[in-house]
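Design review, sub-item: ligand-bound model
Attendees: FS, YL, KQ
YL presented the inputs for the copper (II) ion complex:
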Amino acid sequence: MKTTFALALLLTAVACNKTDKASPGTAATATGPTSGMVDVKADGDGFTPSTITLKKGESATLRFKRTTEETCADKVVFPELKLTKDLPVNQVVEIPIDTKEAKTLGFECGMGMYKSKVVIQ
Ligand SMILES: [Cu+2]
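KQ shared the predicted structure:
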């Protein structure tokens, strides 16, 4: 498990360096609240990271990228926002998050599996 997790972090870091040269410090490895661009991977394990903590009041955009056909996470749904976005393979889909209020926003795949969340604090 630990090896898989480390590998996922490594892959995230590599992807981040390729696509987001301007802010190398915003990798999804942060454990504390973050802001700015946050990469979220969708694959056979669902969404990674599955919990994203954002700083209240600071602008944040989730950058979803599906990396495999082998998943039903071909779209992401935010039920509270009534928002559904398709996730084409290997395309970054940006979803800005309103962080004005401290709250928890759930998100999931189109079938309601892979429960994940954004915590604004
Ligand atoms: Cu599903």
